[in-house]
């Protein structure tokens, strides 16, 4: 598995950006992997959380080790603190990640599939919100997964706005009283998508029972199922921390429609 740090220019944001990439390659560990067999690869966009960056999954989880036997490319973009959103201060992070980035990936890595059925997205916390948002409002992703995701329908969720100053939240979402029903409300986006008649993305969510977003997830899942979404939902004892996200990312890999091969104990 090759690891690449890719610096590229984003026309949407008007600045240089960076993404980390895990890319299946020919190696002694996988003698049957050849250039001919490493084509039309499925891809997982793996999103970081608040205060994180494109290195989080690489440094804090076992994602590279878990995928050593599996033909799956992983794209880990940087979204800063922008909540995968076209911010009110004029920086269109959502467009950059939901539209421009897949085109950039297709240009730089032609061995990665461009088919929706092979495009997946997942994330933790803020990235869980981002994963569902991308799946509900773009045509690129057929599967979306959230770990401890911020699956809230109102910014008045207890303690949420206390995480940062109000000026920050206004810069991200604009008028905070108009969040519900807006382009940033994932339930509004899910409802709009469900009314289009297109094939809906399959969803997965996990949250720990001691996580402060546990209540939000408990309410979100039945709501999404009522709209017609196929949601696989798990909850176990656990908190809002990397120990659990590193553990349950493997559940996501097992859930995805890929030939996931659990790591063999190689020397």
UniProtKB/TrEMBL annotation:
One Pfam family in the UniProt entry: Esterase
Recorded hits in InterPro entries, A to Z, give: AB_hydrolase_fold, Esterase-like, Mycobacterial_A85_antigen
Any one Gene Ontology molecular-function term assigned to this protein's record: acyltransferase activity, transferring groups other than amino-acyl groups
What SUPFAM superfamilies has UniProt attached to this entry?
Answer: alpha/beta-Hydrolases (SSF53474)
Cite the Gene3D superfamilies for this sequence.
alpha/beta hydrolase (3.40.50.1820)
* Name this polypeptide is given: Esterase
Q: Which organism is it from?
A: Oenococcus oeni AWRIB429
